[in-house]
Amino acid sequence: MELFDAIYHRRSIRKYKPDPVDKATVEKILEAGRWAPSWANTQCSRFVVVRDPEVKTALAESLMKIKLPDRELENPAAKAFRTVPVVIVVAAKTGTAGAKPGGGFTTDKGDWFMHDTALATQNMVLAAHALGLGTVIIGAFDAKKAEAALNIPEDYRVVVMFPLGVPDQEGKAPPRKELSELVIRDKWD
Amino acid sequence: MDVFEAIKNRRSVRHYKPDPVDDDTVAKVLEAAHWAPSWGNTQSWRFIVVRDAAIRAQVADTLRLVRVDNEWVENAASKAIKQAPVLVVICAEKGRAGYAPDGAPVTDKGEYWYMFDIALAVENLTLAAYALGLGTVIIGGFDAVKAAQILEVPDDCRVVTLTPLGVPERQGQVSPRKKLAEVTYHDKYNK
Fold this sequence. Notes:
The complex is a heterodimer.
Chain A: H1 3-9, H2 23-34, E1 45-50, H3 53-62, E2 66-67, E3 72-73, H4 76-83, E4 86-93, H5 113-130, H6 143-149, E5 156-164, E6 183-185
Antiparallel strand pairs in A: 1-4, 2-3, 4-5
Helix pairs in contact in A: 1-5, 2-5, 3-4, 3-6
Chain B: H1 3-9, H2 23-34, E1 45-50, H3 53-60, E2 66-68, E3 71-73, H4 76-83, E4 86-93, H5 113-131, H6 144-150, E5 157-165, H7 180-183, E6 184-186
């Protein structure tokens, strides 16, 4: 698929078919993540490919509920986690991106793992779309619960997760601000 | 250009020709960035397109020096910012990504979701630039507070990353990657 088509037509998909996704396809997507750039090539991103239904369910249960004034609703992504054959978890080795060789961090942002895992995640969601698969990036979950379900070591953090499967809906493009609202020339004023 | 071709062959470019890059091309690159997904569709990214050579030079001077043979020298990326006709500065509006509508942070990552959302957009930006024959290099190692002063960025926004945008004088080298097996686990971390 042409790059700009992928960028413009990728949507966040929340309804999936249970159709299988084979290992070679998953690898193509992870391979796209692996080729993302990273702070001084530190490559802090790690990927957990979850197919085990029990682990998928545990991850679904870690998702935050949607709070309405009178009740709480399950996040639609939780159902997606149970439907799809694969959930990809993006984790990070902390203390590498943006770190100084002698300890501590280089910039006012501290650890750059949030940044570098997103570079990899964007490549993966574009690659999935190009292969006819849907994704939705989920950040609103109890990371401690997810980390426990996945046996993640202490110096690693779970950053996002996304279901990977055959879409059962046409995703909608949420409205975007006009580019002119976001672009400043030379200086802010 | 094919998506996978762009993903695999994009390189960080640190040497640029002074050739111009027109406004339409810059707009295409930023449009691609803007089509990235974001936390609750908050679209917290803001882009400063710097063409003014004096301002570019001032921002270039906020980059960290690098030590070569016991001597502190200018970072190759500083030179790149001065060479390329366009510098894109990517900022984030604070208090949006990762926050509930009532203003409380939602996760253990606190305010840091702006780093994540900005990078989703930046990845699109670098891929789009590459597909259009242009080079970029994502720069995070600079004094963001100084850069914000130079660019008169308001207090509710933070400067996150910079990239020159221009015609590569030479392609960047491939940074060796860990094998996929070294960064992939199945079902649980120890598998």
